[in-house]
Amino acid sequence: MEEAYQQSYGQDWGIRIRDIEEKQKLISERLMLAGKTLIDNRDKTFEEMQEIKKELLKLKEDSVQIKRLLQSITEQLNNSARKDELIILQKQLDILRS
Fold first, then answer.
1. What is the 3-state secondary structure (H, E, C) of the chain?
2. What is the reported pTM?
3. What's the pLDDT tens digit per position in 31-49?
């Protein structure tokens, strides 16, 4: 009888050890999956940040070009206004001469 009890007791320990080993294996697999997901997310975020930086640089370049264009247009408008003033002065001078 005692042998049956010891054998049963040994089997219980064997089952418990297998259960613990299986739980440990599952936890290890979950941890590996979580680590892989974390690395994938980090890589994806890094790529997105690089793309955003590129877009930001492009926007800055576009902004500088727009500022230059507006400055050029403003200068041309100022020169055009001076030409108009010269034309008016020329007409006034022509009227005085006649």
1. CHHHHHHHHHHHHHHHHHHHHHHHHHHHHHHHHHHHHHHHHHHHHHHHHHHHHHHHHHHHHHHHHHHHHHHHHHHHHHHHHHHHHHHHHHHHHHHHHC
2. 0.56
3. 999 999 999 999 999 999 9
